[in-house]
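Changelog excerpt

This revision adds worked examples to the README so contributors can see how folded entries look when concatenated. The first example is reproduced verbatim below.
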Amino acid sequence: MGNYVKVWSEQKFWLTPRTLSSFEEQLPVDSFIRIHKSYMLTKRFVHYIEAMWSV
């Protein structure tokens, strides 16, 4: 299928033939956060972030 991004809203989702990096370049940094190589979130729905790694 190649590169695509699934964009979710509260009611449905869209498949777009783009990379997540291309979205990341266009979205406002103060409103979105990349939490994984495959996931971005709208910051207004994030209340707390905790690191989960061991040294």
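The second example, added in the same revision:
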Amino acid sequence: MDESTPCVELSKDDLAVVRTGVFGLLAALGAAGDSGLAGGLREVSTGSDAFEALPVALRDALGDSPSSVAWGEPPEDLEAVIEAAREVVARKLPDQTAAFDAALLYAAVRVADAAQGTSDSEEAVIDRLRQQLGVDPSS
């Protein structure tokens, strides 16, 4: 990712939508896993580290924006909140859309594998994400 990409001014509403999509995905993985408290803490830490894969314009801005998602409590319509986040990125940061999608998948795979390997239910969340992103399931 290009670290020199200028930070586009995202409204608080835009940031909330993107953050809800990102954290909604991570919360869905937390809910799908069965790794217990220690594993859950590793997943949270890994999710935080995975933010480094986000485009710089989003990574720097997301830390201060509100989110209505709690770890392990995913939104009812995960695909809808992810799609809303992708639409904000496509509208405000069109040159970062592919990087955002790649960062979502990267974070999902890392978080799912952080505790005790990827469970079947975590793999199902990742498969749904791959389908939504139009990514070959074998990748």
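Reviewer comment on example two: Residues 77 and 124 are 15 Å apart (CA to CA). Helices lie at 12-32, 36-50, 56-62, 78-92, 97-113, 120-133.
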